[in-house]
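Q: What would this complex look like in 3D?
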Amino acid sequence: MIQGFDDVIAKVKSCGIKKIAVAAAQDSAVLEAVREAKAQGIADAVLVGDEAKIREIAAGIDMDLAGYRIIDEPDMVQAALKAVKLAHDGEVDMYMKGLVDTKNFLKSVLDKEVGLRTGGPLSHVAVFEVPGIDRLLFLTDVAFMTYPTLEDKVNIIRNTVPVCNACGIENPKVAPLAAVEVVNPKMEATVEAAELTKMCEEGQITGCIVDGPLSLDLAIDPEAAKHKGATDRKIQGDADILLFPDIHAGNLVYKCLVHTVPGIKNGCILTGTKVPVILTSRSDTFETKVNSIALAAVVAEELSKEV
Amino acid sequence: MIQGFDDVIAKVKSCGIKKIAVAAAQDSAVLEAVREAKAQGIADAVLVGDEAKIREIAAGIDMDLAGYRIIDEPDMVQAALKAVKLAHDGEVDMYMKGLVDTKNFLKSVLDKEVGLRTGGPLSHVAVFEVPGIDRLLFLTDVAFMTYPTLEDKVNIIRNTVPVCNACGIENPKVAPLAAVEVVNPKMEATVEAAELTKMCEEGQITGCIVDGPLSLDLAIDPEAAKHKGATDRKIQGDADILLFPDIHAGNLVYKCLVHTVPGIKNGCILTGTKVPVILTSRSDTFETKVNSIALAAVVAEELSKEV
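A: Here is my prediction, written as structure tokens for the whole assembly.
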């Protein structure tokens, strides 16, 4: 049973080491995370980028580059395209952003020839280990899709279920969140939440249990669900996937968790791609970057099983 | 300097005891909170409602009713109207919901003859004491106004500034929140946040400092603000008022704090009214109810000074 990132890392190790391609690897924070992932037996890396700069930075952080494949490509856009092609061709299992800016990184992910498209839209999932909660929480979308339509929400769920599966959750519970737990025609988020619930009951969304609209207390706190008498709900404080109405709600809750809950851990990936994509931000801690690599590695294993 | 609810309660005591009118007081959770507020010297209460039931419930919780004024009115709607009139006439300093349902309670608040209208719209403020943050945070609107327009947001700020003043914050910093800290024309919340900032700079919003759009980390975490290099911002992790784009974002963050942060404390009131209105929900803890009364009491003192 996976309850936290230590369990995720243990699972990665049992699967055998995975490999990352890094786009423009001349970035000290990224190299430090990659080194830690290798040291912990989570993942190996192919460093694509400006080799001279990579070697200079590595020397500065006392990182031994023996054992890393380095592909020299000083141009960052070209480095991204070469790195993503390795993932596209199946030579590596994950794709990670280095110094290249987010816009060009995403362009490489979406590139029609060498990119990682699968047909559906991409989405972001932030996985949290919250002290006091005995399972991982999968928050989506807190960083990528701004104002998802109903169809987008269906795709977000489809993208996120395999991430839960990878973390040992067979039939995840999906909570489309809102301020309230009853449908209010004046609140689009509650109407769409009810529609998603119905689509799941009718078999249009599979591999999960959807129950919404839900307020956050009913979604994550069994005591609160009991107190409110929510005994007829499919989710009673035991949701796995927290589906947000829009990016403001998602991002504000995400940052609330990161910046107010002591001892919280998280890792994030982009999903809906051929292989998991690691897009950490400069404000992420070292631990979050390593957790993101571990998360991507278990998801890579899961996706390789599905093919 | 007020850093938490203990300081709020200390301030109430220094102001002299305030008085609440309770609408349909035949509710054990409400009576328990009222008793505790009286025991702590925070507030006295006039209990309006079904006297026989009030006495029965009081006996059941071993509460001594000597010293309480009781106005017998078995009909809940009438009880609310009689209780709110006491506040309207200046006989009491605060108005609190008892067993009457929220709809009829709000009707009494908005009643044109005996209610508490001041001309502007009502809004809700949730005040939080978060471990690790050395000041109170004022979240609005997380429970009442669903999709505030720009004009509504101006009114929300106007309603909330006196609550900060009451808690010893002279010139509160207001953070109109969004997923990002830069204006994006495709995100209405960021555009309106910038407009609010400008309106404050131009003197259309007074008594506070507005700086938005802000992400939650820049609003509440000085370390994050420093790390992101936000040295040109008026708010650098030191916001007092967190202004949410809509009720979903607000309510989800509110519940996130309540249900994931150990040791957190909060209290809530309705503002924009002649006297503060206490509208606790059945899911609020006993402590939250008492904190809400204490918060209302300091705000009542502040509003009485303004008259």
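A: To summarize the key features: Residues 25 and 31 of chain B are 7 Å apart (CA to CA). Chain B has a mean pLDDT of 96.
Q: Very helpful, thank you.
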